[in-house]
Design a protein that fits this description.
The structure holds 2 protein chains of 2 kinds.
Chain A: E1 5-14, E2 17-27, E3 32-37, H1 43-50, E4 58-65, E5 69-72, H2 78-85, E6 89-92, H3 96-99, H4 106-116, H5 122-135, H6 152-164, E7 170-174, H7 182-199, E8 202-207, H8 210-216, E9 219-224, E10 227-233, H9 234-239, H10 244-255
Helix pairs in contact in A: 4-5, 4-6, 5-6, 6-7
Chain B: H1 13-28, E1 34-35, H2 49-58, E2 64-69, H3 76-89, E3 92-93, E4 102-106, E5 119-123, H4 137-145, H5 150-163, E6 174-176, E7 180-182, E8 200-205, E9 210-214, E10 220-222, E11 249-253, E12 260-264, H6 267-275
The chains are: A alpha/beta, B alpha/beta.
Bound molecules: adenosine-5'-triphosphate, magnesium ion and zinc ion (ZN).
């Protein structure tokens, strides 16, 4: 089997400061990889490099494309990469405002990706938007409301619907539950888990929150100071951490 | 009387050459917005400085100029631009569409079909059709370069979602030669089908420093949805002065008792028809009895 995403030696500096260094991993179809680590450990930097939003200094990010098989995303032309970003990939931002068009209705937000790939039938676009709103538990009567009128949790669910409507194969998420109330977080996680399983999505999820990875991630990478210090099956890493830093991370969470 | 202090058509020759280079580039890539170094003109931006600069760069002493503002030759804006070129270029002017070699327009395309050899210059306030949903210039430029035009349909989707139909009535976006999406300036969408014609069409945005163009007979398609097709709509009425049932109409309030009438927005077209003997419902009777 070919990995869906193969990350090889990805390194990014900001001037002299290391963002992330020599990161390697394979993501298999249907697999969810969690990335945890303290603030400033390089999680967002790595995710941006993987999703083509930031050019790393070195390394390869090989994605198994539908048409041509494995291709290094970093050497693709920009049009190809942007096409990938709005078809086979999805990116869920921590702040829904970064991932939504705040001046456009919920239906328009979900429909945008469909229209971007050529959908030109209003009734079809609207029906698909309503279907997807339903799947993220937003009722049909909100389809013409702008995201401004939505709660934080709803905005985040709308962002997820907007991203998944084109049936992507790989989803990047940066702190998808950050900034939400605990009860709202739980509902969102539940929903995400359902969608990931149902659609057989592969995902890379960055988070501070070990509960998020426990629930969603098959495998886990622990980062510190830009480097991956430990990696393994989620339960294994959380229940039997090997690296000193991971032990600290797990025990500090358990004590709270 | 000419003011000797001015170069022909006000702008210096070097500036006109710069603008002509931009015009040629714009004609070579129909619908593509070409940046140009817009100059200060002796009139405020809202008065069509982009169009004036394009006209200045096109005019030759043999040209005959017509200037319209929303179809009318006699508004302050049209009159002052016409006077400006009478004074700085000593060109002949006319109100008749068929007699003009260069027509500068704000927000209308003349009803009389344009012919080969004519130049139509549009005054453009906002050249970027994607700005409504994407304010970042770096991003819109990329979207044009990569033909990522899904956003234009998001705008039309929003129209239908909120109003039940595509309510965009002016500056209705078009796709040019199957490639660039273009804002045709705030002409009524009624005029969109007329964008495909035999003249050279030049668009000048002064404040935004952009020029774009349509060579003769360029294919221009108004964006729409399969189930909400584009319609070049107008008021369902005939002109009350010339009886024309197919021209674009202005609604005019005639008294303070709610009286109103519909008249052609193209004043030359309407006057020409009346001179040919056409009559509308509210035409004065006695004069022609
Ligand atoms: N745009 C930037 N310019 C300079 N340095 C940056 C930039 N972005 C991140 N860094 C630095 O790179 C390192 C990794 O930052 P990154 O944002 O990837 O961490 P993170 O793990 O996502 O942190 P957080 O959990 O706070 O989001 C940090 O030292 C950070 O200060
Ligand atoms: Mg981060
Ligand atoms: Zn008339």
């Amino acid at each position: 089997m070919t990995p869906l995403l193969s990350v090889q030696g990805v390194t990014k500096h900001y001037g002299a400061r290391l963002g992330c260094g020599n990161v390697n991993f394979d993501l298999w179809p249907g697999e969810v990889m969690g990335i945890v680590g303290e603030s400033g450990s390089g999680k967002s930097t790595l995710l941006s490099c993987l999703s083509g939003q930031l050019a790393p200094d070195a390394g390869k990010v090989v994605f198994d494309t539908r048409a041509e098989g494995p291709r290094d995303v970093l050497t693709m032309s920009e049009p190809e990469r942007r096409m990938l970003a709005r078809t086979d990939w999805a990116f869920v931002h921590q702040n829904a405002r970064d991932g939504l068009r705040m001046g456009v209705s919920a239906g328009g937000n979900v429909g945008e990706r469909l229209m971007a790939v050529g959908a030109r039938n209003y009734a079809d676009i609207r029906a698909q938007a309503i279907d997807w709103l339903g799947r993220v538990e937003i009722t049909e009567d909100r389809v013409d409301d702008r995201p401004r009128a939505f709660s934080g949790g709803m905005q985040q669910r709308l962002q997820i619907a907007r991203n998944l409507v084109t049936g992507p194969r790989l989803v990047f998420m940066d702190e998808p539950t950050g900034g939400l109330d605990v009860s709202v977080q739980a509902r969102l996680l539940d929903l995400l888990r359902g969608l990931v399983r149902e659609m057989g999505l592969s995902a890379v999820i960055v988070t501070h929150d070990l509960a998020v990875v426990r629930l969603l991630a098959d495998r886990l990478m622990v980062m510190k100071g830009g480097h991956v210090v430990e990696t393994g099956l989620t339960d294994q890493v959380l229940d039997d951490p090997q690296h000193g830093y991971t032990q600290l991370l797990v025990s500090s969470v358990l004590q709270v | 009387m000419t003011d000797q202090a001015y170069n022909f058509a006000y702008l210096d020759e070097q500036t006109k050459r710069m603008i002509r280079r931009a015009l040629l580039k714009a004609l070579a890539v129909p619908g593509y917005q070409v940046p140009f170094a817009s100059r200060e003109m002796p009139m405020p931006y809202g008065w069509g400085t982009g169009g004036v600069q394009v006209t200045a760069a096109c005019l030759t002493p043999e040209d005959r100029l017509k200037v319209i503002d929303q179809g009318a030759d006699d508004t302050t804006n049209a009159v002052s631009i016409r006077k400006f070129f009478e004074r700085t270029a000593e060109v002949e002017t006319t109100e008749h569409t068929a007699e003009a070699s260069v027509i500068q327009t704000r927000h209308r395309i003349p009803e009389q079909p344009l012919e080969e050899g004519q130049i139509l210059v549009y005054q453009v306030p906002i050249p970027e059709p994607l700005r409504f949903l994407e304010p970042r210039e770096t991003e819109t430029r990329k979207m044009h370069a990569l033909e990522e035009y899904g956003l234009m349909h998001v705008k039309l989707y929003e129209d239908i979602a909120h109003n039940g139909a595509i309510s965009t009535a002016y500056a209705y976006p078009v796709k040019v030669e199957g490639r660039y999406v273009m804002d045709p300036s705030p002409i009524p969408k009624f005029d969109n089908p007329k964008l495909e014609n035999a003249a050279i069409q030049l668009f000048g945005a002064g404040r935004e420093q952009r020029i774009y163009a349509l060579p003769p007979h360029t294919k221009v398609v108004s964006l729409d949805f399969e189930d909400h097709p584009f319609e070049a709509s107008k008021a369902d009425h005939a002109c009350d002065l010339c009886g024309c049932g197919t021209s674009y109409l202005d609604e005019v309030i005639t008294d303070d008792a709610g009286g109103r009438m519909f008249v052609c927005s193209d004043t030359d077209f309407c006057a020409t028809r009346q001179a040919q003997g056409h009559r509308g419902a509210l035409s004065p009777q006695e004069e022609y009895a």
